[in-house]
Amino acid sequence: MPKTDLWFTELQTDKLTIGLRINRTIHREVTEFQTLDVFETQQYGNLLVLDGCVMTTDKDEFVYHEMISHVPLHTHPNPKNVLVIGGGDGGAIREIVKHPTVERAVLAEIDGRVIEASKQYFPQIASGLADPRVDIQVTDGIQYVKDHKGEFDVVLVDSTDPVGPAVGLFARDFYQMVFDCLKEDGLFVAQTESPWVNQGLIRQVYSDIASVFPQAHLYLAYIPTYPTGMWSFTMGTKQYHPLRDRQPARVSGTKYYTEEIHQAAFVLPPFVQELTRQ
Amino acid sequence: MPKTDLWFTELQTDKLTIGLRINRTIHREVTEFQTLDVFETQQYGNLLVLDGCVMTTDKDEFVYHEMISHVPLHTHPNPKNVLVIGGGDGGAIREIVKHPTVERAVLAEIDGRVIEASKQYFPQIASGLADPRVDIQVTDGIQYVKDHKGEFDVVLVDSTDPVGPAVGLFARDFYQMVFDCLKEDGLFVAQTESPWVNQGLIRQVYSDIASVFPQAHLYLAYIPTYPTGMWSFTMGTKQYHPLRDRQPARVSGTKYYTEEIHQAAFVLPPFVQELTRQ
Asked: What was the ipTM of the complex prediction?
């Protein structure tokens, strides 16, 4: 039988694609909120796709999950209560529970099917969900934040792209609610897309976060399966400074995060710095 | 007339592609050495392609050209004689001649058609080629290096991928010739592909350079149109250390390079550090 050549293609912008050769489709469904696909790719192992967009892969997931978690958690001297909004794959939770200070890690994911698919097809990513400190809430993250004022040390907004169910997670009103759900020395981080192809979004989000929090900071990581490979995260913090207050590493065995990477990630090329000017 | 949808696709590995929507083909030819295409893309402006591989684009070329040039030139306290092997588009030369210390910049490019195409279709990239200090040699870079011993302060190996005409530029014998063409305090940098998809090559090149030069150093930059967006450069240096001997910036108006980026580019995630262990 002639070999069948199968490709998954993501339209990353209307002018740019990534193509990944796949061995097979492992799973497809339409959940209450979005389409959910799992493919076995040859380059990056298993791939989770929501509404046609790459979410995570076996091979490169460590970058995103280490960098969205360890940077804010090492900025806070004693993070005990941590909330993840979105992040149903469990990768951020897996990194959070590596911190011995953490007493409670809440996952507020709107789509329970993402959690189940991750447990089934990405067991190494979902592994932290079994930790006894983890509280899984299948619920609207915005409502959860509204209902839990002053409760958290660190919040991570581990959302999909700003379309579909995640659109409300990129709004100034939401950042105010996150501010209110944090303790008086709390801080938060959101994933905020690519400086090459989402300049308008980054500029708006940075400006909104800087208008709600005393400090806003942008940092970068190399993520090969996200558009352009350069990914930004934006931190809003009430008190602690990510460089001046950085804590010694509480975790070991990371493949991307180190104390030096923590510092270097905040060094922005001028064309990215420019997006943070008010 | 219905809209025609045209895409350029690069097979970055046999499992991974990038796709760029194009308005039109500007130029195609087969030179003595390789195929040469120029496309007008919607995402990144004009795109130069050699043997099917993305070489440079209007929008992101500054990252590669600033980082291959300014890191080594700011490691040397007084770079006067600089050689670029490959680099026919002229982008590295444009950055080199910004350094007031530079008295002579030689471009040894094997394919004169690349130089002509760049002058015609990428005038902003090729602009430095008109500088009176520039000496353009359409010749085999390996032969040029053999014939000019002890002559250069800094050498840049601005090559295509290690297939076709550039394959000899990724060999230990060649690094020894580069060593010999440098003055006794000279240093060189080569572009050395992606830590995500070219691990074997990086490991070999790093090991070869470390066996020829007293010091080898790897650094990184975000280049969205190259495979995975994470690009490595490897420096071999006889005397000066890229961090301890870093010079104050001699250039201004850069969009990627700064003194802080120079330092941060050498901070490697553990999965990249691992490639430099002997």
From this structure: 0.96
Tell me which residue in B224, B255, B271 faces A228 most closely, judged by beta carbons.
B224
CATH homologous superfamily, domain B6-54: Spermidine synthase, tetramerisation domain (2.30.140.10)
The answer to whether A269 contacts B263, with C-beta atoms less than 8 Å apart, is no
Percent above pLDDT 70 for chain B: 99
The pTM of this model reads: 0.97
| Positions of B marked catalytic | 158
Mean pLDDT of B232-261: 98
Residue A211 touches partner B, C-beta closer than 8 Å:
no
Mean pLDDT score across all residues of chain A = 96
User: Which class is B61-276 in CATH?
Assistant: alpha beta
A101 phi and psi angles, rounded to 5 deg: -70, -25
A158 is catalytic: yes
Q: What is the mean pLDDT of residues A225-243?
A: 98
CATH of domain A61-243+256-276: 3.40.50.150
Q: In terms of CA atoms, which chain A residue is nearest residue B19?
A: A17
Burial per residue of A249-274, b for 16 or more beta-carbon CB atoms within 10 angstroms, e otherwise: eebeebebbbeebbbbbbbbbebbee
Instruction: Please give the pLDDT value at position A222.
Output: 98
| Residue A136 contacts B, CB cutoff 8 Å | no
Decide if A270 and B263 are in contact by the 8 Å CB cutoff: no
pLDDT digits (tens, 9 = 90+) for B15-46: 999 999 999 999 999 999 999 999 999 999 99
| CA separation for the pair A54, A16 (Å, rounded) | 14
Q: Do A224 and B255 touch (CB under 8 A)?
A: no
Q: Give the number of other Cβ atoms within 10 Å of residue A204's Cβ.
A: 17
How far from chain centre, in Å, is Cα B221? 12
| Per-residue pLDDT at A153 | 98
- Best mutation site among A220, A226, A255, A267 for testing chain B: the one with the most B CBs within 10 Å? A267
Provide the β-strand partners of residue A6: A22
Right CATH for A6-56 from 3.60.20.10, 2.160.10.10, 2.60.120.560, 2.30.140.10: 2.30.140.10
Find out whether A90 and A171 touch, Cβ atoms under 8 Å: no
- Tally the C-alpha atoms within 13 A of residue A252's C-alpha that lie toward its C-beta: 0
Domain boundaries, chain B: 6-54, 61-276
Catalytic residue among A89, A158, A161, A208: A158
| pLDDT tens per residue, range A248-267 | 999 999 999 999 999 999 99
Q: Which one of B39, B267, B272, B275 would you mutate to disrupt binding with A, by most A Cβ within 10 Å of its Cβ?
A: B267
Residue A32 has pLDDT above 70, yes or no: yes
